[in-house]
Amino acid sequence: MQILQNILYKVGLVSVSGSLDVTVAQIEFDSRSVKPGAVFVALKGTQVDGHEFIERAIGAGAVAVVCEVLPPSLKDGVVYVEVKDAHQALALLAANFYDNPSEKIRLIGITGTNGKTTTTTLLHNVFTDLGLKSGLLSTVVNKIGEEEVPATHTTPNPVALNALLRRMVDEGCQYCFMEVSSHAIHQERIAGLDFDIAGFTNISHDHLDYHKTFKEYIYAKKKFFDELSSSAVAIVNADDSNGLVMVQNSRAKVRKMALKTVADYKVKVIENTFSGLVLNLNQHELWTNLIGGFNAYNVLMVYAVAIELGLDEMDVLRGISKLKSVEGRFEYIRSEGGVVAIVDYAHTPDALKNVLSTIQSVRTRNEQVITVVGCGGDRDRKKRPVMAGISAEMSDKVILTSDNPRTEDPGAIIDEMKQGVPVEKSAKVMAITSREEAIKVACSLATEGDIVLVAGKGHEKYQEINGERFPFDDLQIVKETLKNLNK
Predict the structure, then answer these.
(1) How many CB atoms lie within 10 A of CB 114?
(2) Which residues are within 8 A (CB) of 353 and not within 5 positions of it... i.e. 6 or more apart?
(3) pLDDT at 180
């Protein structure tokens, strides 16, 4: 329970009607979840305007309404708070309601197109291995120490986010490693949070269905760094052309990491095989079970964050050497028949190119690379032909298939992908609408030594079709298919 006046701290108020000395039991932005004593925050969304549900929220027992536009008539006994930005207000209200838990934990946010999940998960694993109780907020799963809490979004809504941070603080977590998505930044979900470290991995074309232009996408990411405090540290990938753009207006202390350019934190790949990576990390040689040049960057970010947080360098290096691949991120198995199958979340052109480049760097050239790839429906259509073109250029055989078609026709999505396949490469590309069938065919085409890449869904255990989620697990289907083929 909190007093309304206290939880409005830092909120940009326009007007107030009623007494702010009212007790608040919960904060809600979905009128269907409102209970007596709640504050209802009316958000203008892409599909629904919360202002249309103010009366319903009051009927369910809301004692206060926070909105950008006041209703025509105000009910007696209800407090109305008019604000400049309801999304930002929701985040600040949530932070204040839970007594600003981000100020009582070392909060580390990682943003970028690729590498967020891997980096945050690896950080959580290293710190946990060192006996440092930590929280994790990621696309795959949220964790409070070792306790798993199912994840529904890359970055939770502000109320759920601050509730999780509060639990982490109450249960003794010293650190929290958090993925920060561009949607979350733009929608003010992280407003009011006190970040100790912000990391930038890379940026490439993604989410243009939401941000409309690449420039808008860049500036959504940049906003995260613009709003850091002077006591925070910003660690950016200097090899990315937009790395230093991120920190142009930031008050934070800037640290650069790189593989190719001058930086505070440097890594060099000495060996890259299916057995792992041998790296020179700031003049220290070490081996890690992780594979691929992109993982060299992920490991470097883990190292840089840990050092900036004051951990012992040798402890950090030992922790990195114990790391294993993250679920759905270049997760691979080798069948009894000698086929290597890789499942990866790569769902952007850049991520797909990285994965295929890694495969090219470790293959012997005496085997086939067979790629299964699809693109999601109701999302950025521009990347569809690009991803098919990359697959055709960098694979020996390609099967175009469904990803999460959502409300679109899977065949129409595949037709758009085909437009990116060069004519001279078309003979090695086939289309199979059923993702399960596509995976099975890819595995059946493979012989000893061949490499099968199943890209796009990674850790996801479902396929989304017409608003429903059906059980679907790429890795499970791969394992079962290869096992049956070896009988």
Answers:
(1) 25
(2) 390, 394
(3) 95
